[in-house]
Amino acid sequence: MTDSSLVLDGIDVYYGDVHAVKNVSITLESGKILALLGASGSGKSSLLRAIAGLEKSNGRVIFEGEDVADLPVYRRGFGLMFQDGQLFGHRNVGSNVAYGLKGRLPRDQWDARVNELLETVGLPGYASRAVSTLSGGQAQRVALARALAPQPRLLLLDEPLSALDRALREQLSVEVRQIVHRSHTTAIYVTHDQDEAFTVADTVAIMHEGNLARIGTPQDVWMDPQTVTVARFLGYGPILNPEQASQFGVHVPDGKLLACGPDAWRPAAEGDAEGGVATRIVEGRTVRGAEEVLVEFSDGVTATVSLPIGTDLGTRLNIALDDRKCAVVTA
């Protein structure tokens, strides 16, 4: 541990009898972005609020070598950004960005700081604009600029892009990562969207029922989910037992299971184990320039296979499995 890192040590959060966060411990290096990823009710936002001081918690929250768990929110020096941005409608863009500068920067330096931040978030010249004229994406950029303006020691973002459409989320997730890294700010980013988390974060922590289920780099978490719970959340499926996996020439150790990645299946070709496995096509649809079909094995297990658009589907399909796109997991 370095003095500039964030350390969560045994964090518990209770809401009455509900144990929302269960003994979570995480270390985050200075200048890095941690994504807390999980389904609704997994405990990710409760953990973020405990770090911010908005929820009472047990355990230690150590930042730059200091345990801040007992400090009130305003003394922690952390910046917050929420789903709706919460811009002040009666203030223009520049006044919104400057809101947190009072007492932190001399008044004659505010305009320069505001213009610097608006340039950083891709909105140069917007200081005099009314917030009511902004698009959803622009409003979130302004909210991010406002959160960064006072140079917070730690930036906490709770589902900041979830109210936007998917195309805009994909664009802004890349921009948020670039903006936060350019500002050299340590950040925690809460989301339920795995693509968003993997785009933004240096480290991904998956929460499940209040527990820390998996933590690592986006690459490590994807390639090695470790458990069925994490694999299913990430979109792996189906999950095959050793006998089922052996049909495709894949050996799985006893006591383990094979989680099949979403693009692991393909039509069987000459040379595949026993010519592939026969399946029945249950349904099909066209998705992003491909024919995506749901197939069913004789034992009732189903899988999704992507085929070139215009493929004559018929009713049956022999499929093969690319085990390089699968992961061995525990139940």
Characterization of the model:
This protein has 331 residues and is of the alpha+beta class. The chain folds into 2 domains: 224 residues, P-loop containing nucleotide triphosphate hydrolases (Rossmann fold); 97 residues, OB fold (Dihydrolipoamide Acetyltransferase, E2P) (Beta Barrel), CATH 2.40.50. Helix content is 26%, strand content 32%. The protein is built from 10 helices and 18 strands. Strands 6-7-8-3-9-10 form a 6-stranded mixed β-sheet, sandwiched between helices. The chain has a 5-stranded antiparallel β-sheet with strand order 13-17-14-15-16, with no helix packed on it. The protein has a 4-stranded antiparallel β-sheet with strand order 2-1-4-5, covered by helices on one side. Strand 1 and strand 2 form a beta hairpin. Helix 4 packs across helix 5. The longest helix is centred in the middle third of the chain and has 17 residues. It is globular.
Average predicted local confidence, pLDDT:
91
Tell me the helix content. 25-40%
Gross morphology: globular
Percentage of β-strand residues:
25-35%
Question: What profile does the largest beta sheet have?
Answer: 6 strands, mixed
Going by CATH, the homologous superfamily of the largest domain would be: P-loop containing nucleotide triphosphate hydrolases
Structural class: alpha+beta
Order of helices and strands: EEEHEEHEHHHEHEHEEHHEHEEEEEEE
What is the radius of gyration computed over CA atoms, rounded to a whole number of angstroms? Answer: 24 Å
Strand segment count = 18
Separate helix tally = 10
Q: Architecture of the largest domain, according to CATH?
A: 3-Layer(aba) Sandwich
